Amino acid sequence: MNAKLSVDFDNSFARLGERFYTRQLPEPVSAPGLIRINSALAIHLGFDPNWLESKTGLEFIAGNCIPAGADPLATVYAGHQFGNWNPLLGDGRAVLLGEVIAVDGLRFDIQLKGSGRTPYSRGGDGRAPLGPVLREYIVSEAMAALVVPTTRALAAVTTGENVMREGPLPGAVLARVAQSHIRFGTIQFFAASQDISALRFLAEHAIQRHYPEAAKTDNPVRAMLDGVVEHQASLIARWQLLGFIHGVMNTDNMLLSGETIDYGPCAFMDKYDPGTVFSSIDQGGRYSYRNQPHIAHWNLSVLAQALLPLLSGDRDRAISSAQAAIDAFPDLFLAAYQHGMRRKLGLTQSRADDEILIRDLLTLMQEEGTDFTLTFRRLSDLADPGHASNGGVELIFDLPVTFNPWLERWQQRLRNDPQDSETRQADMYVVNPVYIPRNHLLEEVISAAVTQQDFGPFHTLVDVLARPGKFDKNRARYAMPPRPGEVVKQTFCGT
Ligand code: AMP
Ligand code: MG
Q1: What span, in angstroms and rounded, lies between the C-alpha atoms of 27 and 272?
Q2: Is the Cβ–Cβ distance between 156 and 130 less than 8 Å?
Q3: Which of 83, 157, 265, 300 is in Cβ range 3.0-4.6 Å of 279 for a Cys bridge?
Q4: 3-state DSSP assignment of residue 215
Q5: Contact call for residues 95 and 24 (beta carbons, < 8 A)
Q6: Is 211 exposed, middle or buried (0-12, 13-18, 19+ CB in 10 A)?
């Protein structure tokens, strides 16, 4: 066996010092079993996929053996959960092993999730059931394939042990990859404890890691805040354009890097309804589809508030600087959203009444309850009907006749756009995917794995979602909306 761990760990977060974390080894498990290795991501990060699949590799993912150079720790953070301040959170069921430098020179955290208790576990067991691990694997990798900034899944293993929830469930560990795990709540923790030197140290670390250009400006912290605002605006626009509902946009679930994190109760919409809420714990609809931009703005204002001591020595100046930074969000979001919507409709140029065209389409979709994803996919077919045979979904979906007057307006508008129809359609197929991780499919493959130890459906779904824009008629069922009996109305954090 010459397969071996081929990466060196670095631990820049560990070097920040022990105010920021507690050193914590993962708790070993009895019998690590392979679920899946993400070979392409492994290679990108410099891991040998054969080694990861070996017995030692599985022990590494399960947290049973710590590679040389890693420095496992649980980070501390705070956060607003459903608007309520929680002064002490932290990694309660995860440890950060360290960082690796990918082949493109970028630095990535390797975190084990479901790795046992930590000082931040409160009443929890620090473990993860198999279902939520599979869910996060599938949805985070689907998001990556949809070109949404996101944490990734490097690998998942079963533990050979049960975790107790309503009843016993098989346990699992997910190896999660992120540009970093620095949350809005990490900044909030040090602001709330008025440890300004730690706050400054953390901000400098985040600047170096995620916003190196900011370091060259007169006010690096302000420049970083501007960067975070921009990243969030474009991230939330991507979510809206795909019908993705995060479900738990607490400030501890927002990363400074601008990646999507925490795939607990998230879900993609089937029928278009902007009021959609899936999470069982979101009673008031705080994190509904239509609220996501407002919540992101609110979260940013909380972050800006926490950064006040670093923005200026003068309190009034700090406040006006913070205000200016977060005031940029609505326009940045709208610009990203409208640009994205125009692309979804095949428009390369912007015209004054495009907004009305978009609004009327969404109104129709809501009135008719059409499937969000397939509506845009069908429009892509209609953008060049002669060539749609390669991607057309007419076998499984068509627009109701009530769309005809709108379709005529849209066709008219397309004639005023310079792009030729073949290129237009190819571009539309890229931004209007045919495969998304629909809830009923997730439930189906998770149930097969959990109740019958059959991981085949999980693997097939991961493979299908890796190519979301290319329709394969043999895999049409993965593109179809749920039948009435299959509709999933609620999702659960599954912790
Ligand atoms: P989440 O709802 O996933 O954002 O988690 C909120 C907080 O609860 C975080 O501090 C988690 O680390 C902690 N937590 C969630 N599940 C568990 C668990 N099974 N054991 C210990 N801590 C947990
Ligand atoms: Mg979380």
Answers
A1: 43
A2: no
A3: 265
A4: helix
A5: yes
A6: buried
Cβ contact 318:405 at 8 Å: no
Q: Does residue 293's CB lie within 6 angstroms of at least one atom of ligand 1?
A: no
- pLDDT for position 389: 66
Q: What are phi and psi of 268, to 5 degrees?
A: -90, 140
State the distance from the centre of ligand 2 to the C-alpha of 93, rounded, in angstroms. Answer: 10
Ligand nearest to the CA of 123: 1
DSSP string, 168-180: EEEEEEEEEEES-
Per-residue pLDDT reduced to its tens digit, 166-189:
999 999 999 999 999 999 999 999
Judge contact between 468 and 434, C-beta under 8 A.
Answer: yes
- Which residues fall within 8 angstroms of residue 231, CB to CB, at 6 or more apart? 149, 257, 258
- Give the closest residue to 306 by CA, choosing from 289, 280, 326: 326
Residue 91: pLDDT band (50, 70, 90) is: very high
Show the CA angle centred on residue 9, arms to residues 8 and 10, nearest 5°: 120
Protein residue closest via CA to atom 16 of ligand 1: 495
The 10s digit of each residue's pLDDT in 351-373 is 999 999 999 999 999 999 999 99
Q: Determine which one of 48, 109, 252, 384 is catalytic.
A: 252
Looking up tokens 């008629």 gives 473
If you average pLDDT over every residue of the chain, what do you get? 96
Give the C-alpha separation, 246 to 24, whole Å: 29
pLDDT digits (tens, 9 = 90+) for 430-484: 999 999 999 999 999 999 999 999 999 999 999 999 999 999 999 999 999 999 8
| Beta bridge pairs of residue 169 | 163
Tokens of 93: 């069921």
Ligand 1 pocket, residue 93 CB under 6 Å:
yes
